Amino acid sequence: MSDDDFTRLVEAEQRVEPRDWMPDGYRRTLIRQIAQHAHSEIIGMQPEANWISRAPSLRRKAILLAKVQDEAGHGLYLYAATETLGADRADLTQKLVEGRQKYSSIFNYPTLNFADVGVIGWLVDGAAICNQVPLCRTSYGPYARAMIRICKEESFHQRQGYELLMTMMRGTDEQRRMVQDSVNRWWWPSLMMFGPSDAESSNTAQSMAWRIKRHTNDELRQKFVDMSVPQAEALGVTLPDPSLRWNPERGHHDFGEIDWDEFWRVVNGDGPCNRQRVEHRRKAHEDGAWVREAATAYAAKSASVEEVA
Ligand code: FAQ
Fold it and tell me: Nearest residue CA, atom 11 of ligand 1?
């Protein structure tokens, strides 16, 4: 099969499965994107996990524990999807801890108060859903199927975040101030999750042609802004952008310019928590070495017992 035949196949909305022929670039792009996505889910456990031991009630602690555990599960489905493309999970983890593979910029910001747990659910999971629902129709079968399960859980996460914020907004003035402070800190980094502008996005054109991506970064960012404005109003918070207003001619909200210098600084390893996040991941991986060794030894032993029987 030629590259052109392959392009025609995906244009006809045919799913690509692991044993099908695919161009090397398609395989490489998928491994990059899915690995980055998997790393994001795993590193993304850290900011919220910071609050598990200090959750204000048993109910909030149980919810937060379950959510953080879900993110681990998402990371595992996604690493499994990269393995269907021939990638090696241990190698991907090594690349992550050596800073040779990226993860989402959003997880390099600190969680300073408990309202951050709610705002991550509302805005970060909200942005993740906006970006990921179209990936349920991505051309690579194992990735698309992983995304269906992930999106179901992410929408539940978003609702729990919004419910937490609603509860806080019905509380004291201090609680309302905490929510507003948190929204002020997370709004712009959430918009950055969608990646560089279309003009600066090196991968979008090819990924759209291969039906890996179904929408451009700017299209999804706009969708997220339009979706979030009424939600902010219902909550009673202000989004920290003086240029944000409805544009009746476009049928969308106009919004201010993202600080792209900050975006690239954070993506390239120099955000507020980059070093801390990667170091924590590296240490957790090293501390878990004995579990991997024990599991491998157990699997080998079980296989030899089966052989004898
Ligand atoms: N941060 O050419 P493009 C979550 C990189 S999961 C860091 O536009 P592409 C769940 C990009 O990889 C959040 N790097 O790239 C959760 C590329 O790298 P290269 C993660 C970024 O791939 C919630 C370069 O810049 N979601 O939140 C970022 O076509 C709560 C040029 O960019 C996914 O990964 C960024 N923000 O589009 C967990 C979804 N943006 O080639 C815990 C799947 C771009 O130089 C708690 N991924 N880069 O190595 C995607 O949809 C796409 O990969 C994009 C980027 C849209 C992120």
Answer: 195
